[in-house]
Amino acid sequence: MHIGCHLSVADGYAAMGRTALSLQADTFQFFTRNPRGASAKEIDPADVAELNVILRENHFAPLVAHAPYTLNPCSAEKKTRDLALMLMLSDLERMELIPGNYYNFHPGSHVGQGDDAGLQLLHVFLETILPHAKNTTVLIETMAGKGSEIGYTFEQVAEMIRSAGSPDNLGVCMDTCHIYSAGYDVVNDLDRVLTHFDETIGLNRLKAIHLNDSMTPFSSRKDRHECIGNGSLGLDAVAKVINHPALKDLPFILETPNELEGYRKEIALLRGLSAK
Ligand code: FE
Ligand code: FE
Ligand code: ZN
Predict the structure, then answer these.
(1) In CATH, what number is assigned to the domain containing residue 261?
(2) Which residues surround the ion ligand 1 when the cut-off is CB under 5 Å?
(3) How many domains does the chain have?
(4) Are 132 and 95 in contact (CB under 8 A)?
C-alpha cells in the first residue's frame, strides 16, 4: 500500500521527503503556502531537485499538494475569487518543478448564493486554471457540506468535472471523514458508496484518499477529523477502505490530529492491516 501523512513544508521540500522516509511513508501531503497568511516559501531549485531524487529512488506514489483551505474559488466577492485564482495559478506554476504529482483543492463555499451559483463560478474558475496544470493533476476534494460548502455530493463533483469538459488533468481526492459526514455510509456499506461514486463521477477519476476518522456522527455535515480508530468510522471501516480492490493501490494520506510520532504509529498500524 501507499501511505503517508500531512507534513509541514517549513523546513523545505527535501526535508519532507526525509521525514516521510523516517515514518515509513511513501507519499505525503503538504500545504503549498501558509494556509492563513497565504505566503509561499521561496523555491530553492537544489532543494526541489533533492526531493525529486528521494521520490524516484524510493518509489514514492504521487504526492498531494494542498491549496490553502482559506481560498474560496466560488465566493460571491470577485476580489475573493480573484485572490484564489492568482494564488492557485502561482501554485500550479511551482508544481511544474515536481512533475507528476497532485494538486488538491476545496471547491469552496457559495456563501448564500446557492449550490448552482457556486457550481457555475467553479466552472469558470476551473476553465481558467486547468490549462496551467501541464504535468500536474488537479484534484477536487469531496467535502463534508459544512456551512455553504459545495462538493458534498458525488453528483456535484461529477458536474464540476463534466462542465470542465472532463479533461485528463482533473481528478478527485476522496476524504473518508468528509463523505461519512456528508451522508455516505462507508461504515455499513462501502461497496454501495463506491458503486455510487463509479456511476456518478467514475472510479477512474479517483486519484487519492484522505484517510481520516471522524469526531462527529454519520451525516452530521461537520468537518472534524479524528485519529484512526478513535472516531465514528472506527478501525474496522478504515481497514475495509485500505483493502478495498477499488482503493487499495491509491495513495492514502492521513490528516488526523497527530504530531509526527502519532503519524508514525498510524502508518505502522495501517501497514499491518493492509493485506499486501
Ligand atoms: Fe482538504
Ligand atoms: Fe481532507
Ligand atoms: Zn476535513
Answers:
(1) 3.20.20.150
(2) 141
(3) 1
(4) no
